[in-house]
């Protein structure tokens, strides 16, 4: 792994969406941005992420979601290297990373609070302060944004998308998707409808 170079290309708009408010300015206002590279020290965490990306057995939609989770981890390493985080922000981002890494079977609120080392009430308050949303409301919206992107991409079936995001029944997924975007995923994929600039939270 010492001879491996890990490079990730990401647009300025996507970087801003992932980082949310505040710390995004650390990167987006740099000289040469938005195209200037963000360098992350080759520490143990980065080598672990690279190893996991190279050795994963995930395929298709699961691989896409897994890779996005690892990209978030890399960005977190970059943020931590230049920006001291307050406890609220640090804990909120830890929870976000845990949820993104396992959207199919996310931990309960009690389990998340235990992982972070605070009470459930405090964790909820910390997360809302950073993301302006309750923890599982944020996860539901993240799932829908991932679902929308995957449906439009057309590389995997609607059923695979639903199961990979934690929906046991396609009918439930379809109902939630339709309620969120105003049209079922099948019509969106077929090009029968066009979403009119759906709201995308800036805190992903």
Folded structure, characterized:
The chain starts with 11 loop residues before the first helix and ends in a 14-residue tail after the last helix. Helix content is 62%, strand content 0%. Among the domains are: 1-84, no CATH class; 137-190, Arc Repressor Mutant, subunit A. The chain is globular, with a radius of gyration of 18 Å. It has 204 residues and is mostly helical. Helix 4 runs antiparallel to helix 5 (87-101). The chain has helices at 12-19, 24-28, 44-55, 60-82, 87-101, 109-116, 120-131, 135-153, 158-164, 170-181, 185-190. The model is unreliable at 28-34 (pLDDT under 50).
Q: What is the percent of helical residues?
A: 55-70%
Whole-number average pLDDT?
78
Low confidence ranges: 28-34
Describe the global form.
Answer: globular
- Strand-residue proportion: under 5%
Biggest pleated sheet: none
Blueprint of the fold:
Elements lengths: L11 H8 L4 H5 L15 H12 L4 H23 L4 H15 L7 H8 L3 H12 L3 H19 L4 H7 L5 H12 L3 H6 L14
Helix pairs in contact: 3-4, 4-5, 5-7
Descriptive labels:
Arc Repressor Mutant, subunit A; 204 residues; single chain; mainly alpha; globular
């Amino acid at each position: 792994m010492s001879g491996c170079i890990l490079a990730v290309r990401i647009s300025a708009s996507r970087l801003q969406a992932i980082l949310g408010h505040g710390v995004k300015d650390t990167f987006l206002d740099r000289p040469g941005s938005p195209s200037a590279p963000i360098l992350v020290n080759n520490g143990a965490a980065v080598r672990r992420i690279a190893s996991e990306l190279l050795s994963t057995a995930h395929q298709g939609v699961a691989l896409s979601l897994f890779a996005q989770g690892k990209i978030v981890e890399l960005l977190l390493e970059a943020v931590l290297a230049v920006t001291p985080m307050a406890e609220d922000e640090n804990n909120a981002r830890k929870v976000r990373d845990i949820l993104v890494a396992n959207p199919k079977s996310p931990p309960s609120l009690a389990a998340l609070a235990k992982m972070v080392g605070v009470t459930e009430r405090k964790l909820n308050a910390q997360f809302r302060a950073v993301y302006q949303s309750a923890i599982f409301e944020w996860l539901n919206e993240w799932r829908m944004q991932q679902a929308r992107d995957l449906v439009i991409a057309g590389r995997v079936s609607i059923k695979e998308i639903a199961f990979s995001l934690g929906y046991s029944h396609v009918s439930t997924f379809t109902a939630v998707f339709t309620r969120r975007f105003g049209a079922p995923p099948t019509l969106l994929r077929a090009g029968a409808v066009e979403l009119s600039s759906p709201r995308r939270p800036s805190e992903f």
